[in-house]
Amino acid sequence: MNSVNETIEKLLELSHRIGTTEQMAILGEGNVSGQLNADQFLIKASGTELGSLTENQLVAVHSKPILKALKGSNVEDDEIEDLLLTSRVDSTALKPSVETLFHAWLLQLPHVLFVGHTHPVCVNQVLCSPRAKEFAEHRLFPDQIVYCGAESVLVPYVDPGLVLATRIADLVDDFIKRKKTFPKTILLENHGLIALGTTAKQVEATLRMTEKSARVFVGAIAAGGPIVLPQEQVDRIASRSDEHYRQRMIESN
């Protein structure tokens, strides 16, 4: 586990790198989070911008009350703001993003220490089209498999907040049971992209590769495709040790 200062540094670097790429997020879009310990994490404050995020715009939050809400306590929509405010470690800190709810759940998964959420242009072109399911379930080239996973979780559109967080939790659980592995990417129809990782650089690499994959997908459609990789090739590449070694080397630079 990183120290608090290390987590802050890594989150700010991740935020600035993805927030200054216009393909990823503009204005107040998107958010980042990082685990501090078993009960606390840092999350981007509501209304702040990824590209110019500052340390005081990262809010430390207690995860337990949020996870309790997700497990079926009777929290109404109009109580979510109170939940977010009372979950803050420092009561004078800024209000956490409403998407803190799904960050809390994802950060309790094994090996997930960082989460990035963006609204990439090409990814959303696909997620606002009838071909979102095809993009989520199939792969076009090897690096997409290595960095984005052999398949993505696809979440039908629901409003941000408790309902979205609960839907993400249910579909990720279903994915884990079905695939016997954890997802690297979650695609939100008519909304955006979530990337999970052990490191901030891993999250950045996944976000960037997913956006590239969407550009390839859209271009392949225009050229009469796409032609997707056969499932046996996807499974083989997903298990190749040399591909994962190369991934680790890139992410460590």
UniProtKB/TrEMBL annotation:
The keyword Transferase does not apply. Gene3D superfamilies: Class II aldolase/adducin N-terminal domain. Residues 10-218 form the Class II aldolase/adducin N-terminal domain. Coiled coil: none annotated. One of its GO terms (cellular component) is cytosol. The keyword Lyase applies. SMART domains: Aldolase_II. GO terms for biological process: pentose catabolic process. Pfam families: Aldolase_II. Keywords: Lyase, Metal-binding. SUPFAM superfamilies: AraD/HMP-PK domain-like. One of its GO terms (molecular function) is metal ion binding. This is Short chain dehydrogenase. It comes from Bythopirellula goksoeyrii.
